[in-house]
Structures are given as C-alpha cells and as structure tokens.
C-alpha cells in the first residue's frame, strides 16, 4: 500500500512535476496513464499564466490528483515563506514543497534557510515537504522543525544522473524508519527509480526525465512500473551482495544419469 503523507493516503508511489512537457495535453495524458498520485505546481508559473482562472489551472483540476505547490525559484527564507503563503491562498492546500535554492550551478538546497523556512511554515500550519540534500543532520533538523516527510535529492535537478550517493540514502532510510522518504530530483531512468525504491524509499518525485523523453507518456508509465518493481523487491527481501562466489546448484552427492 502506498504511504500516507500528513494523513493523506497516496494512490501510488509516483509524483510528477508539471514543467517542460511538449504540451498540456501530453502532460495530462502522462499523469493519467502513469497513475501518478500527485503533481507539483509552481506558483510563479500559475500566476504568470492567469492565476486561478488560467487554462493551466483548469487542466490541473481535471487531473484528479493531489496538488503539491512548490516554492521553485526561491533563494531566501523570506521569498520561500511569502511564496508558500500565496500558494496556500491560490491552490487551497496546506501542502507545500519547500525549495530554497542555495547554489546557482547545482541548484543545491540552501539547507540553513530551508530549516528556518520549514519551522516558520510548520508553525503556521503548513504541511511541509522539504526538498533537501541527503545529509542526516539536516534531516534531523527538518524533523525537529515540524516536517513529517523528507524529500532528499539523489542528484542535482535536471541532471538525470541517478543516485550519486546510495550510502547516504541508505543511511537516511535506516535512521528514519518511520518517516516517509521521497527521492526528489536527479532521476534519469526507470532503473534509477527502481534502485532507490529497492533501498526502501516510499516514493519518488521526478519531472525532467519524463517531460523531456521522446515519448513522455510511455516514459511516465515505465517509471510507474519501475517504482512498483523496486518497492516489491524491497518488500520481498533482497539478497545482500557477497565478495565470493557461492554455488547456486548443490555440489554434494553424485549426478545420476539414466
Ligand atoms: C518537479 C519538481 O518539483 C522538482 O523537484 C524537480 O524538477 C524534479 O527534479 P528532476 O527534474 O530532476 O526530476
């Protein structure tokens, strides 16, 4: 069963971004065909396209998925908090994907500002989904600030590199067994999604690898299947890698030939 985030049960373990698709129709088909549970939406894009009465808003309403507004493009606590407050008003949800970008080249989260903004927004009743690094101490601070979900990156946004530090992701899972953990950003291939799900993550959020694929609808479906496969593999109990060969066929006794 897919995880519950802030008390809301998801219908799947796949969350999609809504930017960069070749057309709104392709975006809608990708979301529907893949069974994505939620989509992120940028306040900046929405207000740029006519606000709550815009065509993009109408499209989102027709998708019948949870909306996760984000603070994409924010670089300071003040910007992120203000954007979150506006998003709550516009989208009518307390959910906010909190992004505070700290580095121009890597789009790495500014984790100090992230924790501060998370605390302010949690105190105001927001359900905060923080886009963070894979750092254990930052994760602890975010939980102390009131976050009940963590969204560590596995690689820089849009890089399609896949898990760059599986050990750090594994450590996060081990230290926070009860916290929903969603890998956000950097997934490039369905096999990357399967790999992080095999580590025991609860869900993945991705955008670029689907939106920029040759066939976004087919790619969204491929990611959906990979997420389920990785999740099932984790639940089934994976074999730990070994240094030495271990015969898989019994070697004792004698072969019998008729
Ligand atoms: C869609 C979103 O909210 C971002 O977190 C980001 O765009 C996801 O990263 P990728 O584009 O690398 O999948």
Automatic annotation (TrEMBL):
GO biological process, one term: thiamine diphosphate biosynthetic process
Pfam families documented for this protein: ThiG (PF05690)
UniProtKB keywords: Cytoplasm, Schiff base, Thiamine biosynthesis, Transferase
Catalytic activity: [ThiS sulfur-carrier protein]-C-terminal-Gly-aminoethanethioate + 2-iminoacetate + 1-deoxy-D-xylulose 5-phosphate = [ThiS sulfur-carrier protein]-C-terminal Gly-Gly + 2-[(2R,5Z)-2-carboxy-4-methylthiazol-5(2H)-ylidene]ethyl phosphate + 2 H2O + H(+)
Database matches in CDD domains: ThiG
Location of this chain's protein in the cell: Cytoplasm
Residues the record lists as binding 1-deoxy-D-xylulose 5-phosphate: 158, 185-186, 207-208
Active site positions: 97 (schiff-base intermediate with dxp)
Entry's Gene Ontology molecular function annotations: thiazole synthase activity
EC number: 2.8.1.10
Positions of the Thiazole synthase ThiG domain: 5-250
GO cellular component: cytoplasm
Function: Catalyzes the rearrangement of 1-deoxy-D-xylulose 5-phosphate (DXP) to produce the thiazole phosphate moiety of thiamine. Sulfur is provided by the thiocarboxylate moiety of the carrier protein ThiS. In vitro, sulfur can be provided by H(2)S.
HAMAP family tied to this protein: ThiG
Subunit record text: Homotetramer. Forms heterodimers with either ThiH or ThiS.
Family from the record: Belongs to the ThiG family.
Name of the featured protein: Thiazole synthase
Organism from which the protein derives: Tistlia consotensis USBA 355
């Amino acid at each position: 069963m897919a995880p519950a985030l802030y008390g809301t049960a998801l219908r799947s373990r796949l969350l999609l971004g809504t930017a960069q698709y070749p057309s709104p129709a392709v975006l809608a088909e990708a979301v529907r065909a893949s069974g994505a549970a939620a989509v992120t939406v940028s306040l900046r894009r929405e207000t740029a396209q006519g606000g709550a009465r815009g065509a993009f808003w109408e499209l989102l309403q027709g998708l019948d998925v949870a909306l996760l507004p984000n603070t994409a493009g924010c670089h300071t606590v003040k910007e992120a908090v203000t954007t979150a407050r506006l998003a709550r008003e516009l989208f009518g949800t307390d959910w906010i994907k909190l992004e505070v970008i700290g580095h121009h080249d890597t789009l790495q989260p500014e984790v100090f500002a992230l924790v501060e903004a998370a605390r302010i927004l949690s105190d105001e009743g927001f359900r905060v989904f923080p886009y963070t690094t894979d750092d254990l101490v930052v994760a602890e601070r975010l939980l102390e600030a009131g976050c009940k979900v963590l969204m560590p990156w596995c690689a820089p946004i849009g890089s399609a590199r896949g898990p760059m530090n599986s050990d750090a992701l594994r450590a996060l899972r081990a230290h926070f067994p009860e916290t929903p953990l969603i890998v956000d950003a950097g997934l490039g291939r369905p096999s990357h999604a399967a790999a992080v799900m095999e580590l025991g993550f609860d869900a993945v959020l991705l955008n670029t690898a689907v939106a920029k694929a040759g066939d976004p609808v087919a790619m969204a479906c491929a990611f959906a299947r990979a997420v389920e496969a990785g999740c099932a593999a984790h639940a089934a109990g994976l074999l730990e890698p070994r240094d030495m060969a271990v015969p898989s066929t019994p070697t004792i006794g004698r072969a019998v030939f008729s």
